[in-house]
Design brief:
Order of helices and strands: HHHHEEHHHHHEHEHEEHEHHEE
Number of strands: 9
CATH superfamily of the largest domain: Vaccinia Virus protein VP39
CATH class of the largest domain: Alpha Beta
CATH architecture of the largest domain: 3-Layer(aba) Sandwich
Radius of gyration: 22 Å
Distance between the termini: 61 Å
Strand order of the largest sheet: 5-4-3-6-7-9-8
Strand content: 15-25%
Length: about 350
């Protein structure tokens, strides 16, 4: 006979599922607060009534009041009943109100618009084994991905990751050539260009709308003299003699990552190197039982694996293939020297060279 279920464990797990469902719905409210500028308006303003916040943001008070009630329920905002005021604590503002801060975390929720919208396509992909291409998602995915990764790159790329790349910074200070593969909106490319004005940076991505966005941002930031963006894949991007070729959170999205690394190896200068930035998750599924691991691996189901499958290449990694798999790919591509150069809670940064 089957053993009787532990009713306490049933109720405990039910509570977790209800909590997760609440978080999923609340995520929509968080995204609205970010996109509508509600958090930014509350940051440093002290307690505000719903009417004051509505006036400050130009929004309808009744909607703002309902949104604030949800924020209090989630403990994102504190309610002061004596003054009928709502306060966004400074510590919360550091996470929700400043897109340029390294701690800013609302960008992931912008991606959710696209991910939930692709559920029907994913259901069909599960049945057929076909992919769901990056370009098949809504524009919210492209903007949300750039928005999500930008704070981490801002906080660590120039100050920590590049200095860990075995003399690369000296080359860039003198004037080097860099290819940023899968550049998306180009924030990684432009952060490097701002730090090293004597070097030239070439961003490549197969997605035309992202390249268009990157070109516009570069123009706005006054970087067009040393930054260029062009449509190209990781297997056919032009140029050679690069001192550095970078892959920021994109190699695992490719249908043929080995060929991408082989092309990068051929495009390097004699003493050049590759920077491969990947999610800080493990090939051992039991090691990803934590909030970051759960979010990253779930994103692999929704975006990373389907994107790679849509390219009909020989290998689809998912975003948690792990260091050993990446190192084997690099070695097979002729990049025989490998090291873990840097690490953050979200990313692992690998240096690979001939």
């Amino acid at each position: 006979m089957a053993s009787a279920m532990d009713e306490d464990k049933v109720m405990e797990f039910l509570g977790r599922v209800v909590t997760d469902a609440g978080a999923a719905v609340a995520g929509l409210c968080t995204s609205l607060g970010d996109r509508l500028g509600l958090y930014t308006a509350m940051a440093g303003a002290g307690p505000l009534t719903s009417a004051q916040l509505a006036e400050k943001t130009g929004l309808t008070e009744r909607y703002v009041r309902e949104w604030l009630a949800a924020q209090v329920a989630g403990e994102y905002v504190v309610y002061d009943g004596d003054r009928d005021g709502y306060l966004l604590p400074d510590e919360h503002a550091a996470v929700l109100a400043d897109p340029s801060a390294p701690t800013y975390a609302a960008g992931f929720l912008t991606m959710m618009q696209a991910l939930y919208g692709s559920e029907d396509a994913l259901m069909e992909a599960f049945r057929t084994g076909e992919g769901v291409g990056w370009e098949e998602h809504s524009a919210a995915l492209f903007a949300g991905t750039a928005k999500f990764f930008r704070p981490g790159y801002t906080g660590a790329l120039v100050s920590e990751w590049l200095p860990a790349m075995n003399g690369t910074t000296a080359k860039l200070e003198r004037g080097g050539e860099v290819a940023d593969i899968g550049c998306g909106f180009g924030y990684s490319t432009m952060l490097m260009a701002q730090a090293y004005p004597k070097s030239h940076f070439h961003g490549f991505d197969f997605h035309q709308p992202s390249i268009d966005a990157a070109r516009q941002i570069a123009q706005e930031q006054g970087l067009a003299d040393r930054v260029s963006f062009d449509v190209a894949t990781a297997q056919d991007f032009p140029g050679d003699g690069y001192d550095l070729v970078t892959f920021f959170d994109c190699l695992h999205d490719m249908g043929d990552p080995g060929r991408a690394l082989a092309h990068a190896q051929q495009a390097l200068a004699e003493d050049g190197s590759c920077m491969i930035v990947e999610p800080n998750v493990s090939a051992d599924v039991t090691e990803n039982i934590n909030p970051i691991g759960r979010a990253v691996v779930s994103a692999s189901v929704a975006v990373c694996l389907p994107s790679a499958l849509a390219q009909h290449g020989p290998q689809t990694l998912g975003n948690h293939a792990g260091e050993a798999a990446m190192r084997d790919l690099a070695d097979g591509a002729g990049l025989h020297h490998w090291k873990l150069a840097a690490e953050s809670p979200v990313n692992r940064v690998y240096a690979a060279s001939r």
